Amino acid sequence: MSGPTENDLRHLHAAIELSRSCPPSATAFSVGALIVDARDKVIADGYSRRDDPHEHAEEAALRSLAARDPRLAGATLYSSLEPCSTRASRPVPCAQLILATPVTRIVFAWREPALFVDCEGAELLRAAGRTVVEAPDLAPLVREVNAHLLGP
């Protein structure tokens, strides 16, 4: 398993910046997501609670594209937080939403802590044959955005 590239880190920084746009919540993480096509062009973005109080960042980004949009083949989804494998607010978790598309690669900065649910998104995506890359060096930035949930 290889680590993130410089390009991955650049896109993750952009996703983390998007997460700063999230309306505050005491019951959900603030997350940003980008979808980048095979030619390194951002084709969608999203952040938690952008259009709905229960919306996740990956969900918002994916909703702006058709599930079979040809640009998704070979695309990478960047998320500041590991895509969820369980949701309290909706029936379909983000890992399953991603698996319903041809997105081949997922890059995230911070593994979701067991604050609200036990997350196994990275494992589910890998088990389905998707490439999953973690960039833990950027996790402190994501924790900073979510400091209100983590306590002192």
UniProtKB/TrEMBL annotation:
GO terms for molecular function: diaminohydroxyphosphoribosylaminopyrimidine deaminase activity. It comes from the Bacteria. Residues 6-132 form the CMP/dCMP-type deaminase domain. Signal peptide: none annotated. This is CMP/dCMP-type deaminase domain-containing protein.
